[in-house]
Amino acid sequence: MAICVILAHPQPGSFNHAIAATVVQTLHHHGYAVIFHDLYAEKFDPLLPGEEIPADAPLPPLLEQHCREVAQAQGLVIIHPNWWGQPPAILKGWVDRVFRPGWAYKFLEGDKGEGIPRGLLTAKAALVFNTSNTPPEREAAVFGDPLETIWGNCIFGLCGVDNFFRKNFAVVVTSTPEDRKTWLQEVRDLVERYFSKI
Ligand SMILES: Cc1cc2nc3c(=O)[nH]c(=O)nc-3n(C[C@H](O)[C@H](O)[C@H](O)COP(=O)(O)O)c2cc1C
User: Fold this and answer.
1) Topology annotation, domain 3-48+61-108+124-195
2) Model pTM?
3) Distances (CA, A) of 68 to 57, 73, 139, 173, 186
4) Largest Cα–Cα distance of the chain, in whole Å?
5) Is 133 in the pocket of ligand 1 (CB under 6 A)?
6) Would the pLDDT of 112 be above 90?
7) Residue 190 and residue 10: Cα distance in Å, rounded?
8) Residue of the nearest CA to atom 27 in ligand 1?
9) Is the distance from the beta carbon of residue 83 to the nearest atom of ligand 1 less than 6 Å?
10) Which listed site, 54, 89, 91, 98, has its alpha carbon 20 to 30 Å from 39?
């Protein structure tokens, strides 16, 4: 059993990379096995091919490995910047391909896909860390904070992980080294709060 940590940011020196390093370090410090994927560095192919859509489709070995890791993870941590109110395309595609029927959710007997799916993930908690350049008041009032809905309702809620928390750090572009130091401490504290007792 391990905690699965997923990073989607193309620039190794980014604040997102600093968040990911802090998450992994904190989990190791607490004795967790960590499965870490830097999707850009690994060149994860985000395009869901048509033949992979059927629930019983044969899967390429690497994709099956990702599906198994997520399905069996004790916890999940996702790190990405806000791009147009959404995850970067590489992460959207990772969700499209990895959060599959039979692994992440299923429809009940007799349900052709129109009903309410049952979540299959067994993770005890899911954390999402985001960064953006929009102050929180404007994000909520003008855009409706779509990432909260996407991760909390559409993805983790649907797949059975109700113990979900998302933290957005903003505004990155005007942040000081001191701000970022404080934010990384918040990352440590949240990882400890959500994973030290599971
Ligand atoms: C393609 C793209 C789209 C972006 N869209 C948004 C957005 O919708 N809202 C926002 O606040 N920031 C947006 N940004 C800014 C990024 O969120 C910001 O640069 C990033 O979170 C900073 O973190 P980093 O230093 O780790 O890159 C966008 C940036 C890019 C490159």
Assistant:
1) Rossmann fold (3.40.50)
2) 0.97
3) 15, 8, 35, 37, 30
4) 56
5) yes
6) no
7) 24
8) 14
9) yes
10) 54
